[in-house]
């Protein structure tokens, strides 16, 4: 039985090289085609959504701070939740703590006089914010949608815990 070997002609590119080069050329051509501004608008909308989520976290953080200041006895329960809200603000690119009030800082919220009502107010704020974030999922990129969904779930859990603690 004779053993046959196939030899490739040495004077040309290999088939894989041609296919890979052709695919790369298609990708480059497709990416550099007419730019109609839709990508820029999507990026701006994404940034607005991220900034709004950061402001919402900063507003929640201010509510936690005001409640802790008004009801020192609740501080032990609220500090872990507050710390998570601060991390959420950071994840959205918002500064969670500023040493002095700035013009962009949320106004200090009013806090109910009794602890039970104060916890209920925080639970309502967490619930509203979680609902807003869940509603925004459809207009977010996959990456931001995952972050919004995760933070919304955490907010819903906070609302539950605040309601149980009351």
From TrEMBL:
<feature type="region of interest" description="Disordered">
    <location>
        <begin position="31"/>
        <end position="52"/>
    </location>
</feature>
<feature type="compositionally biased region" description="Pro residues">
    <location>
        <begin position="98"/>
        <end position="110"/>
    </location>
</feature>
<feature type="compositionally biased region" description="Basic and acidic residues">
    <location>
        <begin position="124"/>
        <end position="134"/>
    </location>
</feature>
<feature type="compositionally biased region" description="Basic and acidic residues">
    <location>
        <begin position="35"/>
        <end position="52"/>
    </location>
</feature>
<dbReference type="InterPro" id="IPR006311">
    <property type="entry name" value="TAT_signal"/>
</dbReference>
<feature type="region of interest" description="Disordered">
    <location>
        <begin position="89"/>
        <end position="136"/>
    </location>
</feature>
<keyword id="KW-0449">Lipoprotein</keyword>
<protein>
    <submittedName>
        <fullName>Lipoprotein</fullName>
    </submittedName>
</protein>
């Amino acid at each position: 039985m004779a053993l046959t070997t196939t030899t490739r002609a040495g004077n040309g590119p290999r088939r894989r090289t041609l296919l890979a080069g052709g695919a790369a050329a298609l990708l480059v051509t497709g990416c550099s085609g007419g730019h109609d501004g839709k990508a820029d608008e999507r990026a701006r909308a994404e940034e607005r959504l991220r900034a709004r989520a950061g402001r919402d976290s900063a507003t929640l953080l201010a509510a936690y701070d005001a409640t802790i200041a008004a009801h020192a006895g609740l501080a032990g329960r609220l500090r872990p939740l507050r710390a998570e809200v601060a991390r959420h603000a950071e994840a959205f690119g918002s500064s969670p703590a500023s040493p002095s009030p700035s013009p962009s800082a949320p106004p200090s919220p009013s806090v109910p006089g009794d602890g039970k009502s104060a916890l209920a107010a925080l639970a309502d704020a967490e619930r509203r914010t979680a609902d807003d974030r869940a509603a925004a999922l459809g207009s977010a990129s996959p990456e931001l949608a995952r972050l919004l969904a995760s933070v919304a779930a955490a907010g819903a859990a906070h609302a539950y815990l605040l309601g149980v603690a009351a």
